[in-house]
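User: Hi! I have a protein structure encoded as tokens and I'd like to know what sequence might fold into it. I'm fairly new to this, so please keep things simple.
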């Protein structure tokens, strides 16, 4: 019984660790079809260990690459896009980065949309 319990605990540990990745610029930029397969698992590390607020926008884009979308003083990086039976996503998650007139990041947040 103890052996089975240990195997279950070790398996759970590997599953838990496998869901999170340290931020890696190359993996962050890696795209498969219309998807970024590594971004969601790196997001927590990026936000926790890489302070973006207060950095120049050029430094952020050097680190994260070109944004997927831009609107005024905000840039967006797609994290997750899930589609149903048509072209409109049923769920999306994106990283929104706001910067001021001096191109310094003033806010960072994650947005989720469910349709």
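Assistant: Happy to help. Inverse folding works backwards from shape to sequence: for each of the 115 positions I chose a residue that suits the local structure. Here it is:
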């Amino acid at each position: 019984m103890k052996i089975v319990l240990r195997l279950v605990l070790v398996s759970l540990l590997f599953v838990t660790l496998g869901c999170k990745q340290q931020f890696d610029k190359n993996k962050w930029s890696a795209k498969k079809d219309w998807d970024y397969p590594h971004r969601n698992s790196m997001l927590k590390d990026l936000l926790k260990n890489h302070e973006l607020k207060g950095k120049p926008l050029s430094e952020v884009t050097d680190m994260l690459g070109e944004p997927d979308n831009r609107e005024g003083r905000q840039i967006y990086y797609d994290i997750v896009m899930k589609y149903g039976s048509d072209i409109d996503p049923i769920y999306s998650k994106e990283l929104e980065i706001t910067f001021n007139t001096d191109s310094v990041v003033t806010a960072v947040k994650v947005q989720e949309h469910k349709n």
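A useful reference point when you look it over: The two ends are 46 Å apart (CA to CA). Feel free to ask if any position seems puzzling.
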